[in-house]
Amino acid sequence: MGFSAPKSDLVPSELFSLEALKSRYNLDILIVAGFFIGFGTRYAGGCTSGHAITGLSNLQLPSLVAVIGFFIGGLLMTHLFFPLFFKT
Amino acid sequence: MKALKFLFTGIFFGIVLTKSQAVSWYRIVEMFRFESFHMYRIIGSAVVTGLILLQLSKKMNLKTTEGNPINLPEKAKKYKSALLGGTIFGLGWALAGACPGPIFILFGAGYYLICIIILSSILGTFVYGLVANRLP
User: Fold this and answer.
1) CA-to-CA dists, residue A28 to A15, A34, A40, B18, B95, angstroms
2) Minimal CA separation from A88 to chain B, in Å
3) Closest by alpha carbon to B33, among A66, A79, A12, A69?
4) Which residues 39-78 of B are in CB contact (within 8 Å) with A?
5) Which pLDDT tens digits describe chain A residue by residue (88 residues)?
6) Prediction pTM value
7) What average pLDDT does range B93-115 have in this prediction?
8) Which of B88, B106, B116 to mutate: most A Cβ within 10 Å?
């Protein structure tokens, strides 16, 4: 997919660099990603730490449902949308 | 001064997530591609630790520093919004390669462009507030 994975870096410079963000497309991707994170967290009533870690630790059934949702979204993104978004 | 304990907990959380590489974009994508067990081990061990400590604190009647019993609020039993919201969150989680904790940790680690994601996620929470009562 064109993302090299250097051991020392935490985010790909293909997306997170001033050079990459000269492209409106890459900027839009980050904005959409952030929007989904914020909107989804409020809608689901928690994020990874709230639902997956704390909620599951506290045996909350809604948290299990939310975590299943996290994975539906994450799998759709990496397997279905990534090949469409990042053509190389 | 009471706020200091939150500050220290936050700093500790940030160090743990950084050292465990849970803040890495590559680790998140790798998890969704099932290429490594790394993130599953982190989340799994966190859940097991939390489970044991929560049970112990109930059994031993442990109190918070203010003297209140340790009590986590029950999650609202809104299964439909948990699933739909969770799916939307998952799409963003995989695309950004970070969730709400790590976006701030990455900013602190010097990846300042992550502020685009911080700002747009705040916008997302705001828009949720506008449309919340029209959602299923």
Assistant:
1) 11, 10, 18, 26, 11
2) 17
3) A79
4) 43, 46-47, 49-51, 53-54, 72, 74-78
5) 556 656 678 898 888 888 888 899 999 999 999 999 999 999 999 999 999 999 999 999 999 999 999 999 999 999 999 999 887 6
6) 0.91
7) 94
8) B88
The single-letter code of the amino acid at B3 is A
DSSP one-letter code for B133: G
Q: CB–CB of A51/B46 below 8 Å?
A: no
Residue A9: predicted pLDDT: 83
Q: Is B82 on the interface with A (CB under 8 A)?
A: yes
* Residue from B40, B129, B17, B13 nearest A10 by CA: B17
Tens of pLDDT, residue by residue over B64-76, are 878 888 878 889 8
SS (HEC) of chain A:
CCCCCCCCCCCCCCCCCCCHHHCHHHHHHHHHHHHHHHHHHHHHCCCHHHHHHHHHHCCCHHHHHHHHHHHHHHHHHHHHHHHHHCCC
What amino acid occupies position B123? L
Query: pLDDT at position A88, please?
Result: 61
Q: How far apart are CA B125 and CA B23, in angstroms?
A: 21
Tokens of B53: 């400590």
By the 10 Å C-beta count (0-12 exposed, 13-18 middle, 19+ buried), B95 is classed as buried
| Spatial distance between the Cα atoms of A53 and B101, rounded to a whole number of angstroms | 12
